[in-house]
C-alpha cells in the first residue's frame, strides 16, 4: 500500500520543472497523495503545463503576500479535499536581486521586509489557515525548505541567509505550538540545486564546485533526493519527528574548514 494513500497535500512554490516543490509534488503523488498546487499569476502557464503530469491535480491561484488570497486558497483546498488537509508544503523564497548583489550592510529596509515577508512570514500565515483543516483529519505535516546559509556565511546569499535563519526559528516555534494537535512541522535543508531562485544568486556555479570538493560524498544532489527526504518527513514513517531540520546535502553541513 502506498505510504500516502488517501492523504491530501497542498503545495506552494512550484515555478518550473526544476523547482524543489515540483519534485516533492511528484514524490507525494507517487505514494498516493491527492495534490493541489498553488501558483502565482506570472507562473500560471508553467505550472499548468506541469500539473497535467499528475492526474487529478487541482490548481489554485495565490499570491502569498496577500492575506485574502491565502485565505481563499485554503478555502478552495478545503472544498477540494472535503474539509481536511494532511500535508502542507511551503517552498517559497524570494529576495530582491539588488539585495543579493550589494554588500550586506547596504541591505535596504524595503528589501529586508520583502524578503522576510515572502520567505518567512508566509509559512506562519499558511500554518494559521492549515491548522483547522489538519485538525479535521486528526493531525498533519507541515514542511518547509531551508538552506545551510542559515548558520554559515555563504557569499552572495546575504539577506536570504538571514531569512532562512528566521524561517528555521519559525518552524521550531510552530512545531512547539502545534504538537498538541498532532501537527508536525519540519524542514529539509538541501544542498545547492539548479532552481530558479538559486540562479538569482551570483557566483552560484562557482559555489557548486566548492560544494562538490568539500562534501563527504563529493557530489551535488538532485531534486528527487530532496523530494524523497520530504516524502519521508510527511509520511507516517516520521510520525515522531517534529521541529527538525533534515540535511540533504551529501554531508556538506558536517564539514569544518
TrEMBL record:
Pathway: Lipid metabolism. The keyword Ribosomal protein does not apply. Keywords: Fatty acid biosynthesis, Fatty acid metabolism, Lipid biosynthesis, Lipid metabolism, NAD, Oxidoreductase. It catalyses: a 2,3-saturated acyl-[ACP] + NAD(+) = a (2E)-enoyl-[ACP] + NADH + H(+). It is an enzyme of class 1 (oxidoreductase). Signal peptide: none annotated. The keyword NAD applies. Its EC number is 1.3.1.9. Coiled coil: none annotated. It comes from the Bacteria. Belongs to the short-chain dehydrogenases/reductases (SDR) family. FabI subfamily. PANTHER family: ENOYL-[ACYL-CARRIER-PROTEIN] REDUCTASE, ENOYL-[ACYL-CARRIER-PROTEIN] REDUCTASE [NADH], CHLOROPLASTIC. This is Enoyl-[acyl-carrier-protein] reductase [NADH]. It comes from Dictyobacter formicarum. The lineage of its organism: Bacteria, Bacillati, Chloroflexota, Ktedonobacteria, Ktedonobacterales.
Amino acid at each position: 500500500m502506498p505510504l500516502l494513500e488517501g492523504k491530501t497535500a497542498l503545495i506552494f512554490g512550484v515555478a518550473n520543472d526544476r523547482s524543489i516543490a515540483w519534485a516533492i509534488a511528484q514524490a507525494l503523488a507517487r505514494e498516493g497523495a491527492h495534490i493541489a498546487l498553488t501558483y502565482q499569476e506570472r507562473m500560471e502557464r508553467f505550472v499548468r503545463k506541469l500539473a497535467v503530469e499528475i492526474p487529478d491535480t487541482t490548481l489554485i491561484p495565490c499570491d502569498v503576500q496577500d492575506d485574502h488570497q491565502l485565505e481563499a486558497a485554503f478555502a478552495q483546498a478545503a472544498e477540494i479535499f472535503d474539509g481536511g488537509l494532511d500535508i502542507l508544503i511551503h517552498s517559497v523564497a524570494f529576495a530582491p536581486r539588488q539585495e543579493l548583489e550589494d554588500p550586506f550592510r547596504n541591505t535596504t529596509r524595503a528589501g529586508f521586509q520583502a524578503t522576510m515577508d515572502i520567505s518567512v512570514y508566509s509559512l506562519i500565515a499558511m500554518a494559521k489557515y492549515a491548522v483547522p483543516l489538519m485538525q479535521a483529519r486528526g493531525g498533519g505535516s507541515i514542511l518547509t525548505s531551508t538552506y545551510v546559509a542559515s548558520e554559515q556565511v555563504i557569499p552572495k546569499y546575504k539577506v536570504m541567509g538571514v531569512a532562512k535563519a528566521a524561517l528555521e526559528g519559525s518552524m521550531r516555534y510552530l512545531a512547539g505550538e502545534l504538537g498538541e494537535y498532532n501537527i508536525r512541522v519540519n524542514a529539509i535543508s538541501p544542498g545547492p540545486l539548479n532552481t530558479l531562485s538559486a540562479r538569482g544568486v551570483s557566483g552560484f556555479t562557482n559555489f557548486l564546485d566548492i560544494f562538490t570538493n568539500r562534501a563527504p560524498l563529493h557530489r551535488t544532489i538532485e531534486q528527487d533526493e530532496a523530494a524523497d527526504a520530504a516524502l519521508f518527513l510527511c509520511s507516517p514513517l516520521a510520525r515522531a519527528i517534529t521541529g527538525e531540520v533534515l540535511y540533504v546535502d551529501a554531508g556538506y553541513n558536517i564539514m569544518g574548514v
